[in-house]
């Protein structure tokens, strides 16, 4: 599925993110990629997503050389590789539900498809009751689980987790590792980059690749794959936008919202259907673009009226000093002279 053939990525004369790497990763594997900070774990992930191009060698994905992918087709390749970041990278203006639904809204999927997909993902990461919360209202472990669910929204074949437990305590880190192991048991290929030796020690059945200064120093080889039916990983197709004229509809009276006691605790309710929170405008392909255009708020300063100072006359406007009139006595003195 993924194959590195003598791949080298050189940043400077003495700095290598990858140095003569060669290995294969089979579909359905879970691989721990370990090494100290700066050993090349993140570089390996960016080579797979084609954020980096190798200085030499070749990276293959599904037997296709990544160097042959055209620039206008890279986004199709990246839909097959989900990425989980150490710092979560959730949009703070969106709820957990909306963060997961955002990539599906970009593809212009229908609302029922988005609702079903987001509900399944929140249930998978055990956050069925917290879809309406914002990232600032979640703990570090919960925010990372939302990040994992968002990475799985596009049904990728490969999930690259780049230090997903680096900011978490040991117990929460173990929970994240167990969630990734569960996802792998469903058929998704997992690449788990970490420098935590305890996580690796607790999962001896999985393959280990150790890097040091970009070099491959240890590879335990492919392990036995879990016997389970793989997930369907059909690529999602984007639908063309349709411009429809706006129609005015009469206001409809909505039935009263049921009490929280009558609702099922395991049912995920979209934020725009929840009774306790104010109604939010659902994401649409036209409205998601403005999410990336926010900035600092414009400050409304008071209008200060500045009094004009004295005008300085120009050279042309400067008046010449007027001469005093000469008296008669002075005229007589001048004549005598």
Averaging pLDDT over every residue, what do you get? Answer: 80
Question: What's the number of extended β-strand segments?
Answer: 10
Largest beta-sheet details: 6 strands, mixed
* Uncertain ranges: 226-235, 256-266, 274-279, 286-302
User: So what's the overall shape?
Assistant: elongated
Largest sheet: spatial strand order: 6-7-8-3-9-10
Percent of residues in helices:
10-25%
Distance between the termini: 119 Å
Structural class, judged by helices and strands? alpha/beta
Task: Output the radius of gyration.
Answer: 33 Å
Strand content: 15-25%
How would you explain this protein's 3D organization?
It is elongated and about 130 Å long. It is an alpha/beta fold. The strands form two sheets. Strands 6-7-8-3-9-10 form a six-stranded mixed β-sheet, with helices on both faces. The protein has a four-stranded antiparallel β-sheet with strand order 2-1-4-5, with helices on one face. Helix 3 (96-106) crosses helix 4 (111-124) and helix 3 (96-106) runs parallel beside helix 5 (140-151). 24% of the residues lie in helices and 18% in strands. Mean pLDDT is 80; it is low at 226-235, 256-266, 274-279 and 286-302. The protein starts with a strand and ends with a helix. The chain contains eight helices and ten strands.
């Amino acid at each position: 599925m993924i194959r590195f053939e003598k791949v080298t990525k050189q940043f400077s004369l003495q700095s290598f993110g990858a140095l003569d790497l060669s290995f294969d990763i089979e579909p359905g594997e879970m691989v721990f990629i370990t090494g100290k900070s700066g050993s090349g774990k993140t570089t390996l992930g960016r080579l797979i997503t084609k954020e980096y191009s190798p200085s030499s060698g070749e990276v293959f994905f599904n037997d296709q050389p990544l160097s042959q992918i055209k620039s206008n087709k890279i986004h199709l390749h990246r839909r097959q590789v989900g990425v989980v970041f150490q710092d979560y990278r959730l949009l703070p203006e969106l709820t957990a539900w909306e963060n997961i639904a955002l990539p599906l809204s970009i593809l212009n999927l229908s609302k029922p498809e988005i609702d079903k997909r987001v509900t399944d993902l929140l249930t998978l990461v055990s956050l069925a009751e917290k879809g309406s919360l914002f990232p600032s209202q979640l703990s570090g472990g919960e925010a990372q689980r939302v990040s994992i669910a968002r990475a799985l929204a596009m049904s990728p074949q490969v999930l690259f987790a780049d230090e997903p437990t680096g900011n978490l305590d040991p117990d929460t880190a173990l929970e994240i590792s167990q969630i990734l192991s569960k996802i792998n048991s469903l058929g998704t290929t997992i690449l788990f980059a970490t420098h935590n030796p305890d996580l690796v020690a607790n999962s001896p059945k999985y393959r280990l690749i150790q890097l040091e200064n970009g070099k491959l120093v240890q590879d335990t080889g492919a392990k036995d794959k879990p016997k389970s039916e793989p997930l369907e990983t059909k690529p999602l197709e984007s639908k063309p936008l349709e411009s429809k004229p706006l129609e005015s509809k009469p206001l409809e009276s909505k039935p009263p919202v049921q009490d929280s006691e009558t609702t099922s605790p395991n049912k995920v309710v979209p934020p725009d259907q929840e009774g306790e929170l104010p109604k939010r405008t659902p994401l649409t392909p036209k409205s998601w673009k403005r999410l990336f255009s926010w900035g600092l708020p414009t400050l409304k300063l008071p209008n200060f009226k500045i009094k004009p100072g004295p005008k300085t006359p120009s050279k042309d406007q400067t008046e010449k000093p007027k001469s005093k009139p000469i008296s008669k006595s002075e005229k007589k003195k001048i004549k005598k002279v």
